[in-house]
Design goal:
The protein is mainly β and about 625 residues long. About 5% of the residues lie in helices and about 30% in strands. The chain is built from six helices and 47 strands. An eight-stranded mixed beta sheet has the order 1-2-3-5-7-9-14-17, covered by helices on one side.
């Protein structure tokens, strides 16, 4: 592309822009003629007007030559600054130029150089110390911030990006459509380290000389976004505190990446689409990896340091990692962070929050949810451009959707508001709340056959501040129930595994004291199509079983127990209702105070003992299922 000023009159330039105060030309010692414009703000812009025949190196004038008394000036294609003049068809005489030397221009800000040269031939760029590659346009970027939190623990900074008042995607390039300083040029880069600030789109889609495809950005430099996006850079070393958004997005030739110790944040889409990057990514001292950072990249593994705290939206989506071990410091893995990431194994370490579809569409067969875990997703806001308002939504569904899960181990608190409403949706259920309606069969590949529950609290542990408050009803069963709940730390929440389709083996670990109402309830029409439960392991520490806790869950199973835990004090009505598939050799519970109506409806019991501690027995004993199989032996103290 070429400069229009080679053929336009001064009057035409001045009339095209009200900010233009004066225009003249400057001829340097090599005979190169420069257009020079002074705006009403006092800014001075220069651009190449003509180059004498045979001149291959253009030396950009010093500030003393063209802008004496100024703190800075601009090297800019003046044509690019105005929309009124017709710049099309203008042919520049810079075709002979092979080098642009900026070593005398430490106070210059460079913009739109690509519009001064024909992009079909290569230009060597030599940079002066502390110079600035400016952002490609004078646009107004503002952020409509909206901070949300959940329990004052997890804070999301949602924001809407406004470019000259127009909303764009928060991960989009605000300078999309504005040409970077050297965008699209064929260039050889010399002394890149001299640049103090590398602006947005600076070398976007550039064709780098073979000697310039290994790039280093040091910790004394500041960078904008998309500076090498779409270019043919092959090796990148970066050590700035914050690595700019999309810095090397779609750099399909990038095969080597080095992250320095000074890097603390990788912004959105930094290495998205770097398909040739077949190496392990080490996070070093990074504390946050933002959205789409490595989406659809070629990285083959990750090594997360303990400094890392947040892995954001789609950060590693579309990769092929095989295994992920989260660093000890990772607390949040947000929406779709590892979706379709080729995972066969994960170690969640100390994670506290998982967003929607965080590990969806992988090859996981087993998942261990650690004690540290607190919530599936977070109530947050997104900006709806149609209504021009922030809309509240809940995330956390489908976390393990479309995997091959057969075993789920849970070591976190199952008696909090957060886990209560979202546990089943995490593995891919129809209903986000996970309580009512369809069974958990939206993803037939995710059939949890084995469920292992590990008690989260030891004797000296403090319980979560977000625990469910039991209702205040009293009388009959509620007094007995309340006494058990109030004395228990480890509780399985109400309906938390309601309609949990496909279970064959349930192990409730030592330390669990109470199983709440409907915890494993299976609706009858669903139970008919469910796989049979073959093994049920209850802890010796169990003190209470809530109403309908295993209702219909054992109807079609085949489970045999020698006895129930001797510490049981409370068995609510319908606890094992329609337990046709459950056989208990002996129910002898010396501490049992309350046995609710139909608690063992159709359960096959061989020996039943009533001890002195028993204070209440409900109706329905005649419906114990023994009569269909064996003789019931009843003992009274």
């Amino acid at each position: 592309m070429a400069l229009f000023v080679a053929i336009l009159s001064v009057g035409a330039i001045s009339s095209s822009n009200a900010n233009a105060v004066s225009y003249d030309t400057y001829t340097d010692g090599d005979g190169v003629v420069w257009d020079r414009e002074t705006t009403d703000d006092g800014d001075i812009y220069i651009g190449i007007k003509s180059v004498p025949a045979g001149v291959t190196t253009v030396n950009v004038p010093s500030i003393n030559d063209v802008a004496s008394g100024k703190d800075t000036y601009f090297l800019d294609s003046i044509c690019s600054r105005y929309s009124t003049p017709d710049c099309s068809g203008v042919v520049s005489d810079t075709a002979s130029v092979t080098k642009l030397d900026m070593t005398n221009t430490s106070k210059i800000q460079v913009k739109n150089v690509s519009q001064m040269f024909d992009t079909n031939h290569e230009v060597e760029l030599v940079f002066g110390e502390n110079m600035v590659i400016a952002d490609p346009a004078d646009i107004t970027i503002t952020y409509d911030d909206h901070e949300t939190s959940y329990g004052n623990e997890y804070k999301y900074d949602y924001y809407l990006v406004l470019v000259d008042g127009v909303a764009i995607d928060s991960l989009a390039n605000p300078y999309e459509g504005y040409t970077g300083a050297f965008e699209g040029m064929k260039v050889k880069i010399t002394n890149l380290g001299n640049i103090k600030y590398i602006g947005w789109n600076a070398f976007r889609n550039a064709d780098l000389n073979a000697a310039s495809r290994s790039v280093a950005v040091s910790n004394n430099q500041t960078i904008g976004g998309y500076i090498f996006a779409g270019s043919n850079v092959e090796s990148l070393s970066v050590d700035t505190a914050e690595v700019g958004q999309g810095i090397c997005k779609d750099c399909t030739s990038l095969s080597s990446l080095t992250i320095g110790d000074n890097v603390t944040t990788l912004h959105g889409s930094v290495f998205e689409g770097t398909t040739a990057l077949a190496q392990t990514f080490g996070s070093n001292n990074i504390t946050k990896i933002e959205g789409r950072a490595f989406k659809n990249s070629g990285i083959t593994g990750v090594d997360f340091d303990s400094a890392l705290e947040v892995i954001d939206y789609q950060a590693f989506m579309g990769t092929n990692l095989g295994e992920v071990v989260l660093g000890d410091g990772v607390k949040q893995v947000r929406d779709e962070a590892f979706r379709s990431a080729g995972l066969s194994n994960i170690d969640l370490k100390n994670v506290e929050l998982l967003g929607s579809f965080a590990f969806a569409t992988n090859n996981l067969t087993e998942v261990y949810m650690p004690k540290s875990f607190k919530t599936f997703g977070v109530d947050n806001y997104y900006y709806d451009t149609w209504s021009e308002d922030w809309i509240l939504r809940h995330t956390g569904g489908g976390i393990f959707m479309n995997n091959r899960l057969t075993k789920l181990t849970i070591a976190f608190d199952l008696y909090t508001n957060r886990t209560q409403r979202a546990l089943k949706s995490a593995i891919g259920c129809y209903n986000m709340e996970g309580f009512f309606g369809a069974p958990c069969i939206v993803d037939p590949t995710n059939t949890i056959e084995e469920l292992v529950l590990i008690a989260p609290y030891g004797e000296n542990d403090e319980v979560s501040a977000n625990r469910i408050q039991r209702d205040s009803r009293t009388g009959d069963k509620y007094d007995y129930r309340n006494a058990v709940i109030d004395s228990s730390k480890n509780i399985i929440g109400d309906a938390i595994f309601f309609n949990f389709f496909g279970l064959k083996k349930i192990t409730i670990g030592e330390g669990y004291e109470y199983i709440s109402d409907n915890a494993f309830l299976m609706q009858h029409y669903i139970a008919q199509g469910a796989d049979r439960i073959e093994e049920l392991n209850l802890p010796s520490t169990l003190k209470g079983i809530g109403e309908g806790a295993f209702l219909d869950a054992l109807t079609h199973g085949s489970v045999t127990l020698d006895s129930l835990p001797a510490n049981l004090e409370y068995i609510a009505p319908s606890a094992f209702f329609e337990g046709y598939g459950l056989t208990i050799d002996t129910v002898d519970l010396p501490k049992l105070k309350y046995l609710g109506s139909n608690a063992f409806f159709m359960v096959n019991i061989k020996n039943l003992a009533f001890r002195n501690a028993l204070e209440y027995v409900g109706a329905g004993l005649t419906f114990i299922g023994t009569g269909y199989k064996d003789t019931l032996n009843i003992t009274f103290d």
